[in-house]
Design goal:
Layout lengths: L1 E4 L5 H4 L1 H10 L1 E6 L2 E9 L7 E6 L17 E6 L14 H15 L4 E8 L7 H15 L5 E6 L7 H4 L9 H17 L3 E4 L12 E2 L5 H8 L21 E2 L19 H9 L16 E2 L1
Parallel strand pairs: 1-4, 1-10, 3-11, 4-5, 5-6, 6-7, 7-8, 8-9
Antiparallel strand pairs: 2-3
Helix pairs in contact: 4-6
Length: about 290
């Protein structure tokens, strides 16, 4: 079993105490996102977990406790973008995040830390040239500390339109995608970083950019030495290449406040959920005394 930790929220950044408590207890309870009164128990014992995939923008709270994961295989999907606080309002300064990236890589190795440069968006002040310049700067800093970069282009979900209207945020068109990707591929090659896309229709193979898998059975096989027979996750978007996993997060619980986020709909709901968080509970949010087990 592969644990996704988590597409729905930033557990390393905001809920690392809870996560390590669940590792110690050996299980976690997860709500059905579509039926909140249904709860699934998922084992977290090393014998049941083939790999843990962490998704985060700031794993600093975990760095001094990675030794607690010595019995597990794991890797990080680490999002690092060039946006300022008008788009990512609650993140630490990027210099600090880059320092965290380098520290994490020193601890676990470059293969196990995947750089996510996503989503790529444009606005009044963010042009294709802006991305090319900043990707170049970041690549120089991260060279030798990661082997792969995942890119994707912004999807304009309906609930995001009001949030971003004053900044004129928009997805790149296909021509802009190709221009940005071409330069990213060229820069990345110079720093020995392989580039793949996440859930993108556009074909960039001519640039040396293949369609990727964020939850990647190829990497997991390499890390574990086990040839896992895992199928594509049918519960994800059609273009998503990820294999099957069990996600232990919950929507509307991340406080980074990024304007492009698909996982948060209501700031009020985030505050409400976080007020119900108990680091000792099997559930990320609240308790499961009134829930039905699946």
């Amino acid at each position: 079993m592969i644990i996704s930790c988590s597409r729905r929220t930033d557990i390393p950044s905001f809920y690392s105490d809870w996560f390590f408590n669940r590792i110690r207890e050996g299980y976690v309870h997860v709500r059905n996102p579509l039926k909140a009164n249904q709860v699934r128990r998922i084992s977290l014992t090393p014998s049941d977990v083939d790999c843990i995939v962490f998704w985060t923008k700031d794993p600093a709270p975990m760095l001094d406790r990675l030794k607690l994961l010595q019995d597990y295989s794991y890797y990080f999907q680490f999002t690092l973008t060039p946006y300022d606080n008008d788009i990512e309002p609650n993140l630490p300064p990027k210099t600090k995040i880059i320092d965290t990236f380098l520290r994490l890589s020193d601890k676990i190795g470059a293969k196990r830390i995947i750089w996510r440069y996503d989503p790529i968006l444009l606005s009044k002040r963010i042009s294709s040239a802006y991305h090319i310049d900043h990707f170049g700067d970041m690549s120089r800093r991260l060279s030798g500390y990661t082997e792969k970069c995942i890119i994707s282009f912004m999807d304009m979900y309906r609930h995001l339109q009001g949030k971003s209207a004053n900044l004129a945020i928009r997805p790149p068109d296909e021509s802009e995608m190709y221009t940005i990707a071409k330069e990213i591929a060229y820069i990345a090659r110079g720093h020995n970083i392989k580039v793949e896309t996440c859930a993108e229709k556009i074909d960039l193979a001519a640039l040396g950019i293949e369609h990727g898998k964020c939850i990647d059975n190829r990497l997991i096989t390499e890390l574990t030495g086990m040839d896992l027979k895992i199928t594509k996750d049918k519960n994800q978007r059609e273009l998503c290449g990820c294999v099957v996993s069990s996600d232990i997060g919950e929507y509307d619980t991340c406080s980074h406040g990024c304007l492009y986020c698909y996982a948060n709909v209501s700031p009020k709901k985030i505050d409400q959920n976080r007020s119900l968080h108990n680091a000792q509970s099997p559930l990320l949010i609240g308790d499961d005394s009134s829930c039905k087990s699946q």
